[in-house]
Design brief:
With 333 residues, the protein is mostly beta strands. It has a domain at 17-117. 1% of the residues lie in helices and 55% in strands. It has one helix at 301-304, and strands at 3-11, 16-25, 28-36, 45-51, 58-63, 68-69, 73-78, 81-89, 98-105, 115-117, 122-130, 133-143, 149-158, 165-170, 177-184, 190-196, 203-208, 216-219, 225-232, 235-242, 257-264, 267-274, 281-287, 293-299, 323-330. Strands 6, 7, 8, 9 and 10 form a 5-stranded antiparallel beta sheet that branches. Strand 4 (45-51) and strand 5 (58-63) form a beta hairpin. The radius of gyration is 19 Å and the shape is globular. 44% of the residues are buried.
Length: 333
């Protein structure tokens, strides 16, 4: 049975809260997200909330750098140390003024001064560890001849999370790959699901054998933005922003929603649609030590469907309030 077992609201405070991540560390559930006045606003800052029971979350840390701090990702290094990556727009959103930072903590409450890593316009999307090496999926931002933004996906490696070296370029500017996640199989094969930044925003499947320098890519024919892969019961699942929103409903201001797919070699099969709409998605996706599948995401459905009616909504949904949610999911045949 594929279903939502239970759901709770992590934050609803009238701000635009979004771009979540989720980890289980030190016997607690840690959620990171961005808080700002809108989807893109220079007041964006990083929030970390924690829960012991998956029902009540409390904010325990804030990190604010100059500019718009976005898409914070948590990465436990050991039982007593955790990292958080913070890509930050320090100027014009249409330029390459993206700077990548990383910070560390021993308790999740107190974070070290963020350190700058990578080069200008290099966005570290997600980190995975494999055989003692850290692998980072990095989007290189550039400018096309027509002045538009160009995306290229690079796989980098590190031994300390501070210094990174390029291992391989995945695809070309034609595929325009960006947001992505990687999974390493026991036989050494690696799979990547990556968002394409070209219209209509569908994703690609990428595969390679060790040493991960030669990648085969193919289109998936599905919109999976901000993908994250999870292994469960000998199967792989991927979640991310999907399209369309809710079948039969087309009068909402955005066609985006949140979906979960079963992932096989070069193919995805939709298995569950999460009730999210408007400016939404960008999930965290984990399985805790007791086997619970846990999901975080953000959505505006409470405002558009009248659950919350004390806000005047703008025609531009990117400027409207957004809430963060935590859900427990059942996935099976």
């Amino acid at each position: 049975m594929n279903q939502i077992i239970r759901q709770t609201t992590v934050i609803r405070d009238g701000f635009h809260n979004g771009f979540t991540d989720l980890q289980y560390w030190q016997s607690l559930y840690w959620v990171s997200y961005r808080k700002g006045s809108g989807h893109m606003s220079m007041d964006g800052e990083v929030i970390v909330s924690v829960s012991s029971d998956r029902s009540r979350f409390r904010e325990i840390a804030r990190v604010k750098l100059y500019g718009d701090n976005r898409d914070p990702k948590l990465f436990p290094i050991s039982k007593d140390r955790i990292a958080m990556t913070i890509p930050t727009w320090e100027g014009d959103y249409e330029s390459q003024s993206l700077r990548q930072y990383i910070t560390f903590s021993e308790d999740g409450y107190n974070w070290e001064k963020p350190q700058r890593i990578l080069g200008d316009g290099e966005w570290l999307w997600r980190i995975r560890e494999h055989n003692g090496t850290f692998y980072g999926l990095v989007t290189e931002l550039g400018t096309k001849a027509d002045g538009g933004r160009q995306h290229n996906l690079v796989l980098m490696t590190s031994t300390d999370l501070l210094s990174w070296e390029t291992l391989a370029r995945i695809g070309s500017s034609e595929e325009a790959l960006s947001e992505s996640d990687i999974h390493f199989h026991e036989d050494g094969t690696a799979w990547i699901v990556a968002r394409s930044s070209k219209e209509p925003g569908y994703s690609y499947f990428c595969s390679s054998a060790d040493p991960y320098t030669d990648w085969n890519i193919q289109p998936l024919g599905a919109m999976i933005h901000a993908p994250i892969i999870l292994e469960h019961n000998n199967s792989l699942y991927v979640t991310g922003r999907s399209n369309p929103a809710i079948e039969g409903i087309s009068d909402f201001p955005s066609s985006a929603s949140l979906g979960i797919w079963k992932l096989t070699c070069g193919k995805v099969e939709s298995v569950l649609r999460i009730p999210a709409m408007g400016d939404c998605s960008y999930p965290g996706f984990i399985k805790d030590p007791e086997g619970r599948i846990c999901l975080t995401y953000y959505s505006q459905h409470a405002y558009y469907m009248g659950v919350v009616d004390d806000h005047t909504l703008s025609d531009d949904h990117s400027k409207n309030p957004d809430d963060v949610y935590f859900a427990e999911i059942e996935l099976g045949e």
